[in-house]
Specification:
single chain; alpha+beta; 5-stranded antiparallel β-sheet; 4-stranded mixed β-sheet; 2 helices; 9 strands; 37% strand
């Protein structure tokens, strides 16, 4: 019985400490956006840390709205998207304070870019669309 009284509080403490880790993984899911039939993925950043600018005349959104043939990974959509007439360029800005360190990776279709993250500055990615 004495062993149970010692072990039970330790187990309870471990469970309480593990809960924030599980919730953190959900907050840091690598978000996606379908743009003109290809998935834009930002790896190791919270969705709220990402801003995307797309040309005015492109399709974007979920799989159907953006015209992607495959459903893509089961992660949240990027919602901070602006439409501007930037002649075939997708611009991705990631707030480094809310992204992983030491690097953040963004991909569009088969193109991949990685930037070093010091946890203070914005990270910028540029992809050609079409």
């Amino acid at each position: 019985m004495k062993k149970l009284l010692v072990v039970l509080p330790l187990v309870l403490a471990l469970v309480v400490l593990a809960l924030p880790i599980v919730n953190a993984a959900m907050d840091d899911e690598d978000p996606k956006l379908c743009v003109e039939g290809k998935w834009l993925l930002v790896i190791a950043a919270k969705p709220s840390a990402i801003q995307v600018t797309v040309p005015e005349d492109v399709r974007f959104g979920d799989q159907q709205a953006g015209g992607c043939a495959t459903p893509g990974p089961d992660v949240p959509l990027i919602t901070a998207v602006r439409e501007r007439g930037e002649h075939h360029w997708i611009r991705v800005k990631v707030d480094g304070k809310h992204a992983s360190q030491p690097t953040v990776t963004a991909s569009y279709g088969n193109r991949v870019q990685t930037r070093r993250n010091n946890g203070h500055d914005n990270l910028n990615f540029l992809f050609f669309v079409r």
